[in-house]
Amino acid sequence: MKQYFYALATFSGTIIGVGLFGLPFVTVKAGIIPVLFYFFLLGGLILISHLVYGEISLRTKKPHRLPGYAKIYLGKKAGYLSVISNAIGLFGANLAYIIIGGSFLANLALPLFGGNVFAYILIYALSGAFLIYLGSKTIARSEFFSLIIFFGILLFIVIKSRPSINLNSYYLFNAKNLFLPYGVILFSLGGISVIPEIREVLGERIKLLKNVIIVGTLIPILTYLIFIYAVVGVSGAQTTTDALTGLKEILGPNIILAGYFFGLLTTFTSYLTIGLTLKKIFWYDLNFSHFNAWVIACFIPIILYFLGLNDFIKIIGFAGAVALGVDAIITFLIYLAAKKIGERYPEYQINLPKPFILIIIFLFILGVVFELLSLIL
Questions:
Q1: pTM above 0.85, yes or no
Q2: Beta carbons of 136 and 279 less than 8 angstroms apart
């Protein structure tokens, strides 16, 4: 069962990433009713897309990432489109991890060692790059133990927050920001990119993949709702984009130090797994050398940050609605093809009817269009 828990921790630990810290902010801006609706709708759609992707991987003899599957089942052009969307989404994710995770490290270390925020962001990114170079076994073990610590700290923060929670802090509905949570919530739930890693971690216990996907998707949803309840209930309209800074005046500096450690732990473990996935896209699917793939995967987000791309909410909103939305569309198109021309019989099947799949694709297309229009307008 060790492999099962490592796989579950890797999957849930990767999903529970930097998106967690943007959720209270968009809840305050849009209201609790739209956020709960998005969690219900997108949680279901993402769970289905995860199961679909898992089935695709099981219908294929050799492990690939999304661009590899797109090339096999949909052709070279779809493969190139998938490389672009997958890379934008994953680079956006790791850029967001650097922004928030690096700031958490700085908040912890500056009072002790001095220096500046940029130095700690660089330390955060380079430390992750070193572990990404080492590979998946190191990361799987770190995810397992980090997730245990993560839930311990989350429970501590929730318990300490309860006396300060005010139910009047929860705004019900704000039509002006109705679409704002869409991309952030979609980003916070996405775990398609790491499913090939889960297959590798499970090894001979591949039949457990379906269970890992279902449980590993539901755990983050429950975690997010608990976190939103605690943070918004305490800080209300004062909720910040990183969720934690707004708690400082109410809960005190000692609790916030635990919160910053919590944030550092959460972002860093996901940063590792996403970076590893990026590396393998360039290594396995695009035939770059291992070293070049590692350099591209780890250092482009760092360069983007120092070029001035540092608006956390906009980055994860775009990465979620557009990049992950396109990835989901491609995934369902691959699924339709893989059911007909798959290379092996999968360990599980979900047997979705084609009309239902087309409806899901249409919903994701709407999400992409609305996000692009919101950026333009």
A1: yes
A2: no
